[in-house]
Write a structure and sequence with these properties.
By secondary structure, the chain is of the alpha/beta class. It is built from 15 helices and 20 strands. The structure holds pyridoxal-5'-phosphate. Homodimer. Only the dimer is catalytically active, as the active sites are constructed of residues from both monomers.
């Protein structure tokens, strides 16, 4: 099989950087599938699910940010929690981004990167931290951290009195997929008292942060949040502070990014113009990594309603309502598809093989901005002969349903492969091994010969650190 030795080499959980190949991502997926099928004939079956990750898509997303209306104004602090894969963090550090960390372990991971950022390029953006994490941040030299309550101020006073504090405020996140305001963010009415307390404790509050919610659907939420931040800057002045730092959080999505960045830029120009001297940062997660990861899963089982004559008896199928066929694949909601439960995602399959023959129709990758993956992707790809299917994960739990109803081409069999795009955000990092199923591993590529891919390859190659 093509590149088989190389694919075997890169198909490990923690690939060294030199194992990042440069095959276009869809070709890479097909190569791995073909390689495994060849092995299957020799009896050495390997149907395990895997991710193919294209670092050029991460690069593209950073470029998109930098060329957008906020590109020259808002610094990227990548939200590590979204996808802490070492090659992603390594590339981002080479591209000069900073980092949003939520825990001691994330801080340690970022600080041990081959090209580690200085600790002042990390914000500890978790408003409710265990005291030991605050002490560890002090030891690691990380001073910037968020808070949204009085107890946090007392903890910080004891564990890290020189911290540079950022007040996380509550904003309207009602139009977002994940409403973080249910858990975090000080209502504006509580901010004056918090700031007065911080002042009494002699703490250094440098500014304000917010998060409009992950998967934000309404760009105007950013306009409203910036306006609220401005109110809190004024409260800061009343309490004796001179804030020079604004963190606009995450919540950006590729489909709406152009509009969102324009709305954000306009609001910043009104409330925090450049001559105000306010440094503006953001904590994008999903936007930078979602498109970069494609998951390939194998159909490990299939159930189809038998005609009663075939079954020799009256068969009552208990299938999900209306589906003609039920497919069982080898990753599910306890694994990479946890994004369905935790991140409210709808995932879209397309076939990599039909009746064990490779397919040629693949979605354009990554989809252009403003193009959403169609709900019935196979139909969009031109498969006319489809049937209604439900798709299930491999565990014994009936909650493990990946799609209750989706159109898939006829002819799919046990052993065929389904691919799922846009799988880079909040997927593999939160996957469990429930029921004894391994997490899906990742094969890495810089993505081919496009200018972005060539640029990423050059950036990785130009790095001559100890790990290369
Ligand atoms: N910043 C904070 C504090 C978060 O909690 C999150 C996500 O939960 C992010 C940034 C990243 O958000 P997103 O992936 O929507 O950009």
């Amino acid at each position: 099989p093509p590149d088989s030795a190389r694919i075997r080499e890169i198909n490990k959980d923690s690939p060294a950087l030199e194992t990042v190949c440069d095959t276009p991502v869809h070709q890479l997926v097909q190569q791995v599938v073909a390689y495994r099928a060849v092995n299957d004939l020799s009896g050495d079956s390997d149907e395990t699910a895997f991710f193919a990750a294209d670092l050029s898509a991460v690069y593209q997303a950073v470029q998109m940010w930098r060329n957008s209306p906020i590109g020259d104004r808002v610094e990227i602090f990548y939200a590590v929690k979204c996808n802490p894969s070492p090659p992603v963090l390594h590339l981002l550090s080479l591209l000069g981004t900073s980092f949003d960390c939520a825990s001691t372990a994330e801080i340690a991971q970022v600080l041990s990167l081959p090209v580690a950022p200085s600790p002042d390029r990390i914000i500890f953006a978790n408003p409710c931290k265990p005291p030991s994490f605050i002490r560890a941040a002090a030891e690691q030299g990380v001073a910037m951290m968020t808070f949204d309550n009085a107890d946090e101020l007392y903890k910080i006073k004891r564990a890290h009195p020189d911290a540079r504090l950022v007040l996380r405020i509550l904003t309207d996140d009602s139009k977002s997929l994940c409403r973080l305001g249910l858990k975090f963010g000080a209502p504006l009415t509580t901010c004056p008292a918090l700031l007065t307390l911080a002042r009494q404790l002699g703490l250094n509050v440098i500014g304000v942060s917010f998060h409009v919610g992950s998967g934000c659907k309404d760009p105007m939420q950013f306009a409203d949040a910036v306006w609220r931040a401005k109110q809190v800057f004024e409260m800061g002045q009343q309490a004796g502070y001179d804030f020079k730092f604004l963190d606009v959080g995450g919540g950006f999505e590729r489909e709406t990014f152009q509009e969102m960045s324009q709305v954000l830029r306009d609001s910043l120009d009104v409330y925090f113009p450049e001559d105000s001297g306010v440094r503006v940062v953001a904590e994008p997660g999903r936007l930078l990594v979602s498109s970069a990861f494609t998951l390939a899963t194998n159909i490990i089982a299939r159930r189809r309603a038998l005609a009663s004559s075939e079954a020799g008896q009256q068969v009552e199928q208990e299938e999900s309502e209306g589906a003609d066929v039920m497919y069982y694949i080898n990753d599910g909601v306890y694994g990479s598809f946890n994004c369905i439960m935790f991140d409210h995602q709808i995932v879209h399959p397309y076939p990599l093989t039909i009746s064990h023959e490779p397919t040629v129709a693949v979605p354009s990758f990554p989809p252009p901005p403003n193009v959403q993956l169609a709900v019935d992707l196979p139909v969009q790809l031109g498969y006319n002969d489809t049937e209604k299917a439900s798709v299930w994960g491999p565990t014994c739990d009936s909650i493990d349903c990946v799609r209750q109803m989706v159109c898939l081409p006829k002819g799919l069999e046990v052993g065929d492969w389904l691919a799922w795009g846009e799988m880079g955000a909040y997927t593999l990092c939160a996957a469990s091994t429930f029921n004894g199923f391994n997490r899906s591993s990742v094969v890495w590529t810089t993505g081919g010969t496009s200018p972005d891919s060539v640029a990423v390859r050059a950036i990785l190659d130009s790095f001559a650190g100890p790990d290369r």
